[in-house]
Specification:
Largest sheet: 7 strands, antiparallel
Structural class: alpha+beta
Number of strands: 14
Number of helices: 2
Helix content: 10-25%
Shape: globular
Distance between the termini: 25 Å
Length: 218
């Protein structure tokens, strides 16, 4: 399962895999593998979003953080199910597809006319209607604005263009950086296409999961 955890001094939440633990309802715990979450940077004043993947659907629950336990466990209380109107902001799906980030053309931001021209090509790690997590070979400065060209992993391989900014940049290894990008300017039709793609990928993953469970239980 996955949780989207709020961190101190960051507007965006960190999306990481975790393990669910039962306590007294509506309470529960989430435990994280070593090294995937900076537990001391968790912002307990904001809600945590938890994705529960069932055979036929994915349910997203907003939960308040009650306690932070060392070395890597959160105690939470479920507050509400995230309704469809808010799904575009929170629903993410694992997806690997081509993406490019580049300097915003001068005619779109005249005040940045002296900024250097740059362009990075890489692959996505996950997608949502509000942004994406990417893997690039070079770093990007946090809060830097960028033109984003996303190739949807669909039959037509349609390219979505949006303007956004860098939420965070993390070095994974030499010449490998995980960079979170947030959409600042994207038309509603393009955003709907991204969400439709996310739901289709999720359905595909769920069908694969059902087939695997059938094989294992045979």
């Amino acid at each position: 399962m996955r949780a989207t955890v709020p961190l101190l001094d960051l507007k965006e939440r960190e999306r990481v895999h975790c393990f669910y633990g039962k306590t007294s309802p509506p309470g529960f715990t989430l435990s994280f593998p070593d090294g995937v979450l900076a537990i001391d940077q968790v912002d307990s004043t904001r809600s945590c979003l938890v994705s529960f993947d069932f055979t036929s659907q994915t349910v997203i629950v907003a939960a308040s953080i009650q306690a932070i336990k060392e070395p890597s466990t959160l105690e939470l209380v479920a507050r509400e199910t995230v309704v469809h109107a808010h799904v575009r902001d929170y629903f993410r799906v694992d997806a690997s597809t081509k993406v490019a980030a580049s300097a915003i053309p001068q005619e779109e931001t005249p005040q940045e006319s002296e900024s250097p021209i740059w362009r990075l090509s890489g692959d996505t790690i996950d997608l949502s209607g509000s942004g994406l997590l990417c893997s690039f070979s070079e770093p990007m400065q946090e809060k830097a604005r960028a033109k984003i060209e996303l190739t949807l992993p669909t039959k037509n391989m349609e390219v979505i263009v949006a303007l956004g900014h860098v939420v965070r940049c993390r070095k994974i290894e030499e010449h490998s950086y995980h960079i979170a990008l947030h959409f600042d300017e994207i038309d509603s039709e393009s955003q709907d296409k991204i969400m439709a793609c996310c739901f289709e990928l999720q359905r595909r993953y769920l069908r694969m999961r059902v087939r695997l469970e059938s094989i294992n239980n045979a």
